[in-house]
Amino acid sequence: MRNQLLENANSVPSFRRVAIVGLGLLGGSLGLALKKAGFTGRIAGYARRDETRQQALGEGAVDEGFADVTEAVHGADLVILATPVAVILDQLPRLQPHLSPQALITDVGSTKRRICALAAEFYAQGPLFLGGHPMAGKERSGLENADARLFENARYVLTPIKPDDLKDGRVQAFRALVTTIGARPLTSDPASHDLAVAYLSHLPQLLSSGLASLIDEKHAAEELILEVAASGFRDVTRLADSPYSVWRDICLTNTENIQMALDALIQKLESIKVHLGDRELENEFLAAHQLRDKLREMS
Question: Is the domain covering 193-298 a CATH 3.90.1140.10 domain?
Fold first, then answer.
């Protein structure tokens, strides 16, 4: 399978030098995944902390480590912004003068509308920007949790600024690169992406964190017996391990969609509350089962 993927990648223009800006969970995992897939070009990495750069070099996630982001992206034909959303928004205009007009620049941000709108403003004359969001991650962030297998069988959403960008050889090369690391490319416009992830990613996170916070309050105030928490509760609150530093930017850049999703969930919970004592509750379970079946068919 690996050889087949590499052959597919070789059918389109290939990248010789990749710069990964941000060497946390996603950036480090991308570097490791590219190496595992047989990428033969050079991988440059930028991280603010010296220990992070040294760790990335030691683990083989990058070939070169830089403390200056403009030096890291110099000469790269593919630049991947793997930082929190707010940092991506800050980096996009700052990096533009330092990039080759022939380069492709992409990101891994969890929201896309503001990123793509800013890129459309600053990258109209080059290089080419392609929004990206790998639907992969872990509850724990940081390079120490990076994994070369993180993207295997995961959807990797691509949000081009213009539909015609998909015909560009650089975009086709990046799609092939995404495939080499085991991910499955999916194309969307930025607005549709942000609406979908509000319900399918951001809402589950806030539900998990809110539930865990509620139980913590009940435990402190009413001495709720935590020892009765079984695997179901632990599964539902698994996402509560995720750091606020990541989710702060997501909530700030997708507020309207998240509020709409929360309102819909509150209405659903109110309906369930009303029907706890009658057979209407069964319909909720049946609808839930149908969705779970659909998800299993898609996997």
Answer: no
Helix or strand or coil: residue 159? strand
Tens of pLDDT, residues 243-290: 898 899 999 999 999 999 999 999 999 999 999 999 999 999 999 999
Q: What percent of the chain has pLDDT over 90?
A: 89
Q: How far is Cα 107 from Cα 241, in angstroms, rounded to an integer?
A: 24
Domain spans, the chain: 2-188, 193-298
Which of 183, 181, 187, 180 minimizes the C-alpha distance to 11?
A: 180
The domain covering 2-188 belongs, at the CATH homologous superfamily level, to NAD(P)-binding Rossmann-like Domain (3.40.50.720)
Chain-centre distance of CA 210, in angstroms? 21
pLDDT at position 138, please? Answer: 74
